[in-house]
Design brief:
The protein is of the alpha/beta class. The protein is built from 12 helices and 7 strands. The termini are far apart. The C terminus is likely disordered.
Length: about 350
């Protein structure tokens, strides 16, 4: 009887052991399923917050500014000016070059004699760097939209709006022309003379308004707009800027002068003695080449020099002014853009044959 009891005990023990082992496997499987579901739900939520291109190949492209043909250096800097940048001391060659540029060049290429004005303006901005909405994009597919009359009646609005980042120039309207130029605006470059009194009239609620400083007065204007100063500065502007600006200070940034310097002297390689600088379109394109993996352009171009009937822009009836040729080198910009397209650095969505390139 003792032997039979021992055998029965061992059999029961083996049964419980096998049962517990199977139960443990089942619990592990159930736990694995629950965790997998939780992870999938978390990833789904994350992907809803982070735009993702269907064409994954575009994410594999290197940022365009790293291409050796642009001749850039890689300092620890960002395309938007910050308070920290004004007093950042670093002994690396790249940082010394950048500091020398800011200290010894006057606007629009440096901050000599304008550091205090820049600092006072930057102190009024709640945020100064790249917004998170752009930083978190996995695939930065960008288009720089020029203001050329070649856009009119072409119906490219949907194509423009399909890009992750849409960069526009100055006070170009979109509401009345959305079929041709789209209505999405991620970034808009402007200066006081080209500012919209109410940016929301032709921009999105989250549009990043980027001030391109060409002179010390531009910082003063921005400061007075943000502080709502009563007696505003009016002298010194080539065109009367808005006396009120209803933009959101949280969405205002200041373009780093190096972006303008680089566009003028490193990309276009203009002679400093000629006192010409790049158009806002090329400056915006240079910004795009810094922050995007794919860069397209559309609406870049002027009518022919002797064309007195075709308006310059897709809006308004203004004709070509000779002042444009005094300040800019349009032929050099045309040659550089064509070279960039041949090298595959940028693409033109229209490639008009009858226009010369410009803003």
């Amino acid at each position: 009887m003792a032997v039979e009891g021992l055998v029965r005990f061992r059999a029961q023990h083996r049964y419980y052991f096998v049962f517990l082992k199977k139960l443990w496997k089942a619990l592990r499987l159930l736990l694995s399923v629950v965790l997998s579901v939780q992870v999938l739900q978390y990833c789904e939520k994350l992907l809803r917050d982070v735009p993702f291109e269907k064409d994954i190949n575009i994410c594999r492209k290197r940022f365009a500014w790293r291409n050796p043909i642009l001749g850039r250096f890689e300092p620890d800097w960002k395309p938007f000016l910050t308070s920290k940048e004004l007093f950042w001391q670093d002994n690396t060659p790249a940082r010394r070059q950048l500091n020398d540029l800011l200290q010894f060049h006057v606007l629009p290429f440096g901050l000599n004699n304008s550091v205090l004005s820049a600092f006072r303006t930057l102190q009024l901005l709640p945020q100064q760097g790249m917004p998170e909405s752009i930083e978190r994009l996995r695939c930065r597919r960008c288009v720089v939209v020029g203001n050329s009359n070649s856009m009119r009646g072409r119906g490219f609005g949907a194509i423009i709006d399909s890009h992750n980042i849409v960069i526009r120039l100055n006070n170009a309207p979109v509401k009345e022309h959305k079929e041709d130029v789209g209505e999405k605006t991620s970034i808009r470059l402007f200066f006081p003379e080209s500012a919209l009194p109410n940016p929301l009239d032709n921009n999105d609620n989250e549009t990043l308004m980027v001030l391109v400083p060409f002179k010390n007065l531009d910082f003063i204007w921005a400061k007075e707009m943000l502080l709502k100063t009563k007696n505003k500065t009016v002298e010194g502007f080539w065109r009367r800027p808005p006396s009120e600006w209803k933009g959101n200070a949280s969405h205002l940034r200041v373009l780093h002068p190096y972006v303008t310097y680089e566009a003028t002297y490193k990309l276009l390689q203009l002679e400093k003695s000629n006192k010409k600088y790049s158009t806002t379109g090329i400056i915006a394109l240079n910004l795009a080449l810094h922050i995007c993996q794919e860069v397209n352009i559309i609406g870049f171009g002027y009518p022919a020099v002797n064309d007195n009937t075709t308006p310059v822009h897709y809006y308004g009836r203004e004709h070509l002014s000779q002042d444009v040729f005094l300040m800019h080198n349009i032929s050099r910009e045309q040659a550089w853009l064509l070279h960039m397209m041949e090298r595959g650095m940028i693409s033109d969505l229209t490639r008009p044959s009858s226009l010369s390139w410009g803003p």
